[in-house]
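Justification of resources, computational component.

The compute hours requested in this renewal are based largely on the per-chain cost of generating structure records like the one below. Each record pairs the submitted sequence with a full structure-token output. That output is archived, and it is also reused by downstream analysis tasks.
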Amino acid sequence: MNDPKRNRKSLIYVALLAAIAGGIGVYMSGDAPRKEVAESRGGYRDFAVGPMAAFLVKADRPLVPDLSFRDGQGADVKLSQWQGRVVLLNLWATWCAPCRKEMPTLNDVQKQLGSKDFEVVALSVDRKGLEASSAFLKDTGADSLGLYVDDTTKSLDDLQALGLPVTVLIDRKGHEIGRLLGPAEWNSAEAIALIKAAIAEAP
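The structure output for this chain reads:
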């Protein structure tokens, strides 16, 4: 007889092993992860190659939760404030070594493509708060990225993220095109092509 509790624990254990093997900073969540759907919609699966091979396309494009966090001045911010623009949402923390390696590539994407149609939203989920997160961005040379912090780490649960970094590509209507768990070369030709395809979509 199948034991649901045992099966759930097995799923979490396998996912954590995969995360550790991939060099991902692991975050424990009380909920088992939902199954990712890696099917094509509008040809996006064609972009999941090379540095983007781990990009998981969401065939049903679920609505992304309206995350709450703070900006660099401590003011309350909601993710829905970016609706109407394509967003590359990246969750990171100062203790996450892969995040440090990835951050300059995210900064480069913002320099290349940042506009009224697109923005990289790099969201720190570090419990150390604004000061530590600000120092991290300076240390990594991320001078084109805004400072956003969720020191409650609630965003991780809301997005059902298993580890850090995790990056979610969001369309203009606030729906998830897909996500990538672990570090990536976001300034690679493949990543830029993926993001440009999202920007080119009709509103």
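The helical segments are 4-21, 97-113, 130-139, 154-158, 189-200. Confidence is low (pLDDT under 50) at residues 4-22, 26-42.
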